[in-house]
Each structure stands twice: as C-alpha cells, then as structure tokens.
C-alpha cells in the first residue's frame, strides 16, 4: 500500500509539472550609444608614496571622472599602522575622501584631504569634529596643506 501511495504521488507531481507553461526571458539590449558613452572616460590608477625617517604612507587610487577609490596605508614611526580604503572626489586639485580603516579591532572612518601639486599629494590638516567612530573636518576650506610628508607619484608596479 505504501509503495502504491508513493508511486501515485510521484505520477501526480510529474503530471502537474508538465502542465505548467514554460516562460522565456527575453534578453534586453543596451543601445550602442549608451555603451560607448560609458567608456568615454576610462579610469586611471595612480600610486603615491612617502617613505622617510621610519615612516611610510602609501596610496593606490583609481580615478574615474574625478570619483576616486583606493587603498591608503599609514605606517608612522612609533605609532600603530592603519590600512583601509578611501572613497571620495577630486575638486579644484584637492582630493577629499572618507578613509575607512581598522584600528585596534574597531572600524573607524575619518575624512582625509590631499592637495594635488607637481606629481605630489600634500595632506591637509585642520580642526576636526568627532561623531561616534567618525572624524570629519570642521571646515574643509580652512585646511593647512603644509605637511612635511608629501606623497610622491610612484610606479604602481613597484
């Protein structure tokens, strides 16, 4: 009796599957104009580094239409090292980005700013405000770009 019940259930299930209409999904074409438009501004990858006096700062960034993302590493003498990602934009020869990193087991973010001048990035400093684990500049327009650790453009294959 059990075998008959299982066999009947299998036949009914199979029959109900065959009766369903099959649905096809039509592929959507993207017009060539839109595809070509997206590729008119290719992204570029640039690397910058400061390495002196026992401190090292490295930035590898991808720039597409002044939208920047990348990896930033600080290995400052006698301090904990930080490595994280940046995401921001370039405006008026200044890179303003949010740096997200792990420090002592906690994820934190802080705003970073670099002046782009003569194949160098000069980090900007100024008054900051803290909100939870996030640090932001109080007034970006008043930053001081006189860092003594300028990052020079280097070959990314290094």
Automatic annotation (TrEMBL):
Lineage: superkingdom:
Bacteria
In its UniProt entry, what is this protein called? Lipoprotein
Which residue ranges are recorded for the region named Disordered? 25-46
Ranges annotated as biased composition (Basic and acidic residues): 31-40
């Amino acid at each position: 009796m059990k075998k008959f019940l299982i066999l009947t259930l299998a036949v009914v299930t199979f029959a109900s599957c065959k009766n369903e209409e099959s649905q096809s999904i039509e592929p959507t074409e993207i017009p060539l104009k839109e595809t070509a438009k997206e590729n008119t501004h290719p992204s570029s990858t640039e690397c910058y580094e400061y390495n002196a006096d026992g401190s090292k700062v490295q930035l590898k960034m991808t720039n597409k239409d002044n939208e920047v993302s990348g990896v930033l590493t600080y290995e400052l003498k006698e301090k904990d090292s930080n490595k994280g990602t940046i995401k921001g934009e370039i405006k008026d020869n200044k890179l303003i980005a949010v740096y997200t990193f792990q420090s002592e087991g906690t994820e934190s973010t802080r705003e970073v700013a670099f002046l782009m001048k003569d194949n160098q990035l000069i980090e900007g400093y100024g008054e900051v405000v803290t909100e939870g684990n996030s640090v932001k500049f109080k007034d970006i327009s008043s930053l001081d770009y006189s860092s003594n650790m300028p990052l020079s453009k280097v070959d990314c294959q290094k």
